[in-house]
Amino acid sequence: MSWRIADVIDFEWFLAEDGDLDDSALRARDRQIFGKISATGQSQNRKEIFRSWLEARRGQSSEAPPPGEHFLAAWQTLGALSAAAGIALGISVAAAVLLTYRGDEPVNVGWFFACTVGVQWLILTGVFAIWLLRRTTHLLEGFHPLRTLLSALLWSLSTAFHRLPGERRERIRAKLMGIRRRSDVFSLMVWPLLMITQIFGVFFNVGVLIALLLPLGRDVAFGWQSTLTTSPEAVYKLVSSVAAPWSFLPNPHPTAEQVIQSRFSYSEGIHSLSLPAMTSWWPFLFYATFFYGFLIRLALLIWCSLSLRAALGRFSFDHANSNALFRRLTGPTIQGHPETAGLQLPASFPAFDHTGSGSCLALVANELELAEAEIENGLITGFGWQLSKPVLSVRIDDPGGNGAVLERVAREAPTLAGIAVLIGARRAPIRAIALVLRKVLEAAGGQIEVLVLLAGSRDSDLREPAGSTDQLKTWRNFLAIHDLRLGLERWQA
Questions:
Q1: What DSSP designation does 487 have?
Q2: Contact criterion met (CB below 8 Å) for 442 and 431
Q3: Residue 397: C-alpha distances to residues 261, 404, 430, 434, 490 (Å)
Q4: How many CA atoms lie within 13 A of 9 on its CB side?
Q5: Cβ contacts of 154 within 8 Å, gap of 6 or more
Q6: Residue 355 has what DSSP assignment?
Q7: Per-residue model confidence (pLDDT) at position 138
Q8: Which of 128-142, 255-269, 400-414, 428-442 has the lowest mean pLDDT?
Q9: What residues are paired with 487 via a beta bridge?
Q10: pTM for this structure?
Q11: Per-residue pLDDT reduced to its tens digit, 316-331
Q12: Strands 462-463 and 487-490: what pairing?
């Protein structure tokens, strides 16, 4: 099943919505969904499992359609409005302004070409220059006009729900802003906005072509003029070079004689010009608009469409919330047996090959009393990760410390599947903890999964349950506020 951008938005929406629900209820629901997916014999490809989960969640949702469909409808509406505005502007600019002919002065070919095709190429050249400058010199890296506009559109979409009850309205706004913070999803949403701009460009050129067809039923003269000492021979060479792409078509450009006979000057007036020479410019302008305007814009529109499809195909679904969902769907993944060295999948649950399993480094806040064997068993049963020993004790609220721990994280990160940071669920999240977690992320290099696991405190020989739903919400908000892109789950030992 192929993914649309509306599907990605809905997927992220439901993941964000699940952050407000009880963890045990989520696990029960998702295991049930995965059981149905496995029963139908569908592929166990990760993206296809997520696609089936999305369809199941859409079927379970009792609310109005999720925002993906609203985004798709808004995209289609903006595309239609962009096409209408483009064709209207193209016709009005070309017919009412550039092709105005009163009989005493011909339509200026150079000015018409500059205001239609020339402006478009100037914009495209400017965009390419900015892109090249950013890629080669890293200047203007913070200049993202399309992303800024998209942020404004997303905020506008969130304000469109003003008729909803206050609590639900604010929840929807929070989810939309959460999606905006996801850079990979946000980069996907730039392509539809680019496509809208190219739709405008395509239909603008259609409007100009229509305007160029209108003079066929009336008398319009074309000519060229210049305040520079430009010779007709130089103009002819320029025109013949510009017309090279359509040189196989009839009357691709004026001849050298026609160029000479269509040069206008106010001192001599229009009566000295040749009528065949003046009309010979019309095919040139039509071909130039079609090839350098319409076809270029159409090619860019197709390229944007193919790029969006390729970006959807490359979308990895490997961020923290996706990984947590995958574990809920397909886990508990592995059961360890103390009496044997082997690991087995639960017989009562659909089997799944966790190819992402590997070794894990455990960083434990120094106030937690967790035995190494307990940590090792929890990582195996919960994530399929083998513990990379020894467990590292971390001063979780000391941004200036933990130098040896960070060095080991950086050294072993290329060989790890993940890093688990175990923190007491009762501990209040403070800025110092955010700084420590950011250093862990930087040392990990951004290529592996980093998880914060909330563990319950030990009371005598018993350990209290892991983080409550309210504690999880508090920590999720804390991680979002500090833009820490790591996962958050309960520690299930």
A1: E
A2: no
A3: 84, 16, 8, 8, 20
A4: 22
A5: 176, 177, 179, 180, 189
A6: T
A7: 67
A8: 128-142
A9: 451
A10: 0.75
A11: 887 778 888 888 888 7
A12: unpaired
Rounded to an integer, what distance in angstroms lies between the CA atom of residue 326 and that of residue 355? Answer: 12
Residue 238 banded pLDDT, cuts 50, 70, 90 = very high
Please give the full DSSP string across 76-106, using - where no structure is assigned: HHHHHHHHHHHHHHHHHHIIIIIT---SSS-
Q: What are the CA-CA distances from residue 2 to residues 6, 46, 188, 206 (Å)?
A: 11, 13, 15, 32
Structure tokens at 221: 């003269």
Cα separation, 165 vs 163, in Å, equals 7
In 3D, which of 299, 351, 305 has the Cα closest to residue 330? 351
Residue 135 structure tokens: 């890629």
Short-list 283, 206, 278, 212, CA closest to 243: 283
Longest dimension (CA), the chain: 108
The predicted pLDDT at position 462 comes to 44
Q: For the chain, how are helix, strand and coil distributed in percent, rounded to 5?
A: 60, 10, 30
Q: Which residues contact 334 (CB under 8 A, 6 or more apart)?
A: 343, 344, 345, 354, 357, 380, 381, 384
Q: Which helix (H) or strand (E) holds 239?
A: helix 232-242
Token pair, residue 338, equals 């103390």
Spatial separation of the C-alpha atoms in residues 221 and 216, rounded to whole Å: 11
Tokens describing residue 418: 């993940």
Structural contact between residues 185 and 179, judged by C-beta atoms closer than 8 angstroms: yes
Distance CA 392, CA 207 (A): 68
d(Cα 107, Cα 374) in Å, to the nearest integer?
85
The candidate with the shortest Cα–Cα distance to 109, out of 18, 221, 241, 252, is: 221
Q: Nearest to residue 113, comparing CAs of 24, 271, 226, 258?
A: 226
Beta strands in 42-184 (DSSP E): 107-108
pLDDT digits (tens, 9 = 90+) for 373-400: 888 888 888 888 888 888 889 998 888 8
What digits encode the pLDDT tens for the residues 193-222?
Answer: 899 999 999 999 999 999 998 876 567 888
> What are the structure tokens assigned to 189, written together?
């949403």
Phi and psi angles of residue 263, each rounded to the nearest 5 degrees, phi first: -80, 125
> For residue 109, what are its two tokens?
């070919």
User: Is 311 a residue whose pLDDT tops 80?
Assistant: yes
Within 13 Å and on the Cβ side, how many CA atoms surround 445?
14
Q: For the chain, what percent of residues have pLDDT higher than 90?
A: 27
Residue 86's closest CA among 183, 209, 185?
209
SS3 assignment, position 488 = strand
CB-facing half-sphere around the CA of 72: CA atoms within 13 A: 12
Positions of E strands within 86-183: 107-108
Question: Residue 329 belongs to what H/E stretch?
Answer: helix 320-330
